[in-house]
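User: quick one, fold this
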Amino acid sequence: MALTREQIAKRVAMELQDGYYVNLGIGIPTLVANYVPKGIEVMLQSENGLLGMGPYPSAENVDADMINAGKETVTAATGAAIFNSAESFAMIRGGHVDLTVLGAFEVDQNGNIASWMIPNKLVKGMGGAMDLVAGAKNIICTMTHANKHGESKLLDKCNLPLTGVGCINKVITDLALLEIKDGAFHLLECAPGVTIDEIKAKTAGNLVISDKVKTMSFE
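Assistant:
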């Protein structure tokens, strides 16, 4: 059974490590803030100038001026800092972000990502993604394994305009967790109820099946 957006975010949160500085992209990645594991401390950074982003607010503590890069209302964790976007991008470009989590339209077997433009469709622009893919030490991509037409989004070569080249380390989809290395998607985990054959059928790029493929857990 395919994972929900929340389940994908929970699995991504398991990749967080104590002391990490983390940037969460728009879409599924923003949900990761709600599932930071107990017992570890991470600082979530937003391009618009917030370091120490907390989970989404409850209805009674919404502050319309406290937003993330996707203009969603958020909370500030204890010890958070607020600054201008120039300083925020200096952190990103200076290599001070340990992990970035991004959404994507396509990812290919060489770690290339297309996440910002579909030709002939209205788009808001690149945003901070170009800086994030160049400056982060580690990048995880979250996405559905196939598009609404059932076509694979894990390709041998991206068809859409690229955001970054050779930068994606792992992909967590609604079907699987895969590591990208040596020109291939290496299957490490299957979502509960999802078969390897289903993942094979929906992966257009080079797929390597690990000897120890596990069923995905969220704890």
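User: anything notable?
Assistant: Helices lie at 5-13, 85-93, 129-135, 196-201.
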